[in-house]
Amino acid sequence: MKILTLNFVTCARKACKASPAAFPLRPREAELEIVEQDINPLFVRNVLPRLEWDALREVCGELGLQQLPSTAPSPDDLFTTTPAAADTAMADAADAHEPRPSQLLRDLHTLLLETTMRSGKLVCGNCGHEYAVKEGIANFLLPSHLV
């Protein structure tokens, strides 16, 4: 289950739908794994305005991951037109002003798309119900007495 997914799920109980404490689900006993993927700047740029930034910061803090800025970056912050020092010698004049992925874009890509929760629990902050995560898949089915 990708860290990005935690930004879009909430407790499945009807009693928790109206409670702000039910989002985000709190990871517990999480075993994290990095699954490398090719960087997708367009995806990160398009998903950035849809993220609940404060919730993402909370989840990262609870998992012991990198500290995110207090405010969400703008999509324009994800690219730089200044070539990196290693690229300067190789860049020609026409290529020098092409936008390049910034370190922020690389970090967000790693956090959102490459970091996965392999196993653990997701706990509702409102009712305390635990959803098991096994082999990267969260089980959101509720027992019949909670539906």
Compact description:
The protein is α+β, with helices and mostly antiparallel strands and 147 residues long. It has 4 helices and 6 strands. Belongs to the TRM112 family.
Key features of this structure:
147 residues; alpha+beta; N-terminal domain of TfIIb; 4-stranded antiparallel β-sheet; two-stranded antiparallel ribbon; protein heterodimerization activity; Trm112p-domain-containing protein; Trm112; Trm112-like
General description of the model:
With 147 residues, the protein is an alpha+beta fold. It has one domain: Single Sheet (N-terminal domain of TfIIb), CATH 2.20.25. The protein is 23% helix and 20% strand. The protein is built from four helices and six strands. The protein has helices spanning 41-47, 53-63, 85-88, 103-114, and strands spanning 26-34, 79-80, 100-101, 115-123, 130-134, 137-138. The strands form two sheets. A four-stranded antiparallel sheet has the order 1-4-5-6. Strand 4 and strand 5 (130-134) form a beta hairpin. The two termini are 24 Å apart. The mean pLDDT is 86. It comes from Lineolata rhizophorae. This is Trm112p-domain-containing protein. InterPro entries: Trm112, Trm112-like. One of its GO terms (molecular function) is protein heterodimerization activity. Belongs to the TRM112 family.
